[in-house]
Amino acid sequence: MPEKKYVVRLSDEERQRLNELVRKGKTAAYKIRHAHILLKADDAGENWTDEKIATTFGCHRRTVENIRQRLVTEGFDAALERKKRATPPREEIIDGRAEAQLVRIACGKAPDGRAKWTLELLAERMVELSIVESVSRETVRRKLKKMRSNPTCANAG
Predict the structure, then answer these.
(1) Rounded Cα gap, residues 151 and 157, in angstroms
(2) 22-30: long-range contacts (C-beta < 8 A, 24 or more apart)?
(3) ∠ at Cα 130 (124, 133), nearest 5°?
């Protein structure tokens, strides 16, 4: 069996904190599972194999390896948390600059023959003005809804 690259060596204080987390059970399930994994992987403790830990806690062996690696490279608290994404799953279509322009347009005078702006008209105008390459009415709706908690004008959407 290959030697583990990232060996878990918990201090007494860390071990006590993990045992409290597991015993109380008053936190997120993933944190409790990470605490169990770290306790079982502890070199000075039970020192289970990754395969045995994965089978016992219903996760993949690679998950156990990743938690061990995060403990060694990023620290105790990082090992208990979920891995943070480096980038969002999608880039925002309407950033802060575009959002400010959307507000300016929505607060402005509605097009001729219209009493107020519609989501479709706002989306079309943003594309016409080259603020964004393309945008759906739903994206415009979400941005305007986000601003409703602090209304900027009566004409919006």
Answers:
(1) 11
(2) 30/82
(3) 75
Give dist(CA 20, CA 66) in Å, integer: 23
Greatest pairwise CA separation for the chain in angstroms:
77
How does pLDDT run along the chain (157 residues), one tens digit per residue? Answer: 567 789 999 999 999 999 999 999 899 999 999 999 999 999 988 899 999 999 999 999 999 999 999 999 999 999 999 988 888 888 888 999 999 999 999 999 999 999 999 999 999 999 999 999 999 999 999 999 887 744 455 555 5
Domain boundary assignment for the chain: 12-80, 96-148
Report the amino acid identity of residue 25.
G
Other beta carbons within 10 angstroms of residue 66's beta carbon come to: 16
22 and 36 Cβ atoms separated by less than 8 Å: yes
